[in-house]
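Example record

The entry below shows one chain as it appears in the dataset: sequence first, then C-alpha cells.
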Amino acid sequence: MSNILGLQTGHEASAVLFEDGRLVAAVSDERLSRIKNDGGRLSDLAIDEVLRIGGRARADIGSLALLYTFFPEEYFLRETWAKELERRFHRLRHRGDTERSNMLLTNFIERLAARGKKFESHFKREAFLSGEGFGGAQVAFYDHHDSHALPAAYYSGFDACAVITMDGNGDLGINHTSGVFEDGRYRRLYVSDREGSSAGLFYSHVTRLLGFQAMRHEGKVVGLAAMGDPAPLRDAFSRALRLGKNGRTLDSEFVGEPQAEARRHAFMKDSMQGHARENVSAAAQAVLEETGLELVRRFLVETGMRNVALNGGVFANVKLNQRIAELPEVDQVFVFPAMSDTGNAVGAVLLDMARNDAAAFASNRRALEHVYWGPRYTDEEIERELRAGKLEFTRLKDEDLIGRAADAIHAGRVIGWFQGRMEFGPRALGNRSMLARPTESAINDWLNERLDRSEFMPFAPSVLEEHAAELFFGVEKARHTARFMTITFDVRPEWRERIPAVVHVDGTARPQLVNEATNPLYYRLIKAYHERSGIPLVLNTSFNVHEEPIVCAPRDAVRAFIERRIDCLAIGSFWLAHP
C-alpha cells in the first residue's frame, strides 16, 4: 500500500509516517522548535523530520490523514454566517487562547452539519496540496475522539476491550466517549458533549486557578493532591463534575445553563477561596477519580468487557489510571503513551488504514512494543557538536560506556543519557533521560533546583521488568502499559525506604518497566547498576530543564552539560564528565 502521513496541527502539533501499515517515524513540533506545546498553522518542522527519517519527500506521500481541529483557516471556504466567527477565531488564536478558538472551530463544524453540509466540501483541497507540496495525495479528515480511541485499542494487544476517551474537548464539543473494540473494529456507544461536562476542562480550571498553566502543569496538581485533604472541598467540586443520571456520561450542575463553562469556572474559583492548594488539588483529584471510576465500572458491567484501553489528555493522570486498574471488573488496562492531542496523528492514520486498507490494518495490529520513533544521530554528528563546544570527551565501546555510567550513578552523580531514537509522547523512556541513584530523598529538591523546576511528584524509576512484582503491588494488571510510564503502583513497604527518591508521599511510584528486547543498552545499564547496588532500578527524569521540551538533538544535550545541569553525559559512544 502507499505510505500515509498523519498530521495533528495546532498547539500540540505532530507528524507521523506509516509505510506498509507500520509506523516508522513520529515527531512532535516542540522537540524541534524547542518551544513547549509548540505548533503553528501546519507542523512543518515535524513533517519534514518524519519524511527525512523515512527517506521520503512530500511529493511521495500517497495519503494524508488529517484532523479537523486547528487546521489552517486559509484552506477553507467560509460562508457569510461564518465571517465574524472567523475573525474571532484569529483574534483568539493570536492571543494564544487555543481552548476557546478550538470551540469556535467546533462551532463551524456544527453549523455546517445543521445545514446538511460536509466539512470536507469547504476544504480547498487543490490549494492545500499545491501550497504544501503534497502533489496528488489522497486527503481525508478524521474525528478527534475516534483518533484517540482507535490507537488505544489497536496497540493494546487486546482481542476485545472497552475503550474510554476523555479530554478537554474535541470535535462537536465531545469531551468523552465510551466504546468497544472487537473483531478488529471500534464502535462508539456513548458520548459526553454538553458544555460544562468536560472532565478535562474541570481539571484545567483547577490547574489555572492554582496559578499553574493549563494543558501543561496538570501533573503538579496530581502531585499536590497526595499532600492534601479532599474533604473540605469534595462536595463543592462534586457539583462541578459528576456522573450523569444515566450512568453513561459526564455531567455537572452547570450543564444546560448559558455560558456553562464560564459559570463552572467562576463557581470553582469562589469555592476554593481560603483553602490550601494541597486541599484544592486533593478534592479535584478525588472527584475526578470517583466520577471516572464509576463511569468506567458501569460501562464494563454493561458490556461484559474485562479489558480497558484509555486515551485522551485526562489519562495523563497516572493516579486515575491506577484506580481504574484496581477495579475488580478490570483484568488488564492499557493507556496509549501519546495520550494528548499529539498522538492523534497516529489515530488519524489508523482510521485511514481501517477505511482504505483493511488487510494492512489487520496484519499490523499487535501490542505496542516501543515508542522510539523519533530521530537518531550518528557518532559523527555527535562528535561534530562536541568539538564545536570545545569539550573534552572519551569514545568508548558499549560495555565500557555502560560501566562508566553505572559507576557514576552509584557514586551519586547525575548523568544525561542520550541514545538511539527519540521517544514519542510526553515521557522520557531511556533514550533522552537524566539518570541518578534512587536512594536519597533529598535529590528531589536539589535536582529540581538545578533544573529550574517546581515539581511536586517524585522522579520516576526505570525498573528491570523481571523485578517489578518484587517492588510494586498490582503489576500484572498493567505490566504492558507500565513499559511506557503511564500508571502508578503502590510500592511494597520493604522498598519504600530503600528508594525514597522515586516514592511519593502516598507510597506510590510511576515506573517504566524496561526489558532487554526493546531497549538493550538501557536495560544493560540498569542491570549494571543493580550489580553494584543491589537495587534493580535507576531514577529517571526527562532530559530537559524547566519549561523546555525534552532534548532532541545533540546540541540540546551538550548545552545542558555546558550549563552544568548534569554531572556527566553519555551521548552516543561518547562520555563526558565534569570534575
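Notes for this example: The CA atoms of residues 483 and 513 lie 4 Å apart. DSSP finds 21 helices and 22 strands in the chain.
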